[in-house]
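Fold it.
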Amino acid sequence: MMVKEAVILSGGSGTRLRSVTQNKIPKAMTKIKGLSILEWQLQWLSREDVSHIVFAVGHLFENIQSYFGSSYSSKYGDIDISYSIEKEKLGTGGAFKATKNLLSENDVYVLNGDIMCNTDLSIMNNIHFNNNALATMMVYNMISPYGIVKINDKNLIYDFVEKPQLDIPINAGLSIISKDIIDRFPDKGQMETTIFRELTKEQKFYSYLVPNENFWMSIDTEKDYIIANESWNGI
């Protein structure tokens, strides 16, 4: 069983990426290797059998709506597109909750419109459905922003590792959510500080760790934009 619907949170203005967007396009329309982040996401999700997308949009939403329209076609298949337009900032939780009436499936992906990833989501789906989960979060082992110094008990440095990938999972910006709990999301506010914390107490919140060899990156700054354009290999 695979999730067939996704909500892409695409309303961010990208303050830290303004040198790239020039405040003329939404952050999610920033181009990486010739295509916008959103277009790469649609190709990825289409490959993973998604057939309906809801763009939760706000800042400069006309750019997204005029570019994608009501459908998108790739070599992996066709995707129908709907729009949920914020009239005020709702946060990730409120923006997702506002899409409820546009969704028809029992389980749905919700993802940030600034992540680049190419992992196979079938294992994540197996984890979610086999455990009858209320939610399943994609996580990724954090890459240290600093070089790691290794010191022995005599204070001697015996190794130095430049910005290694650590065994510390972080929220990778995509989750599978059961429609049964959408009403529990805040009308305004971040899902990460509200419903997600509640779910940790119910033992129905699972995780899928993206393999280290797969690509994952959040495009938050101009530096991220440069790195992604150098290292992204496509879907």
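The chain is about 25% helix and 35% strand.
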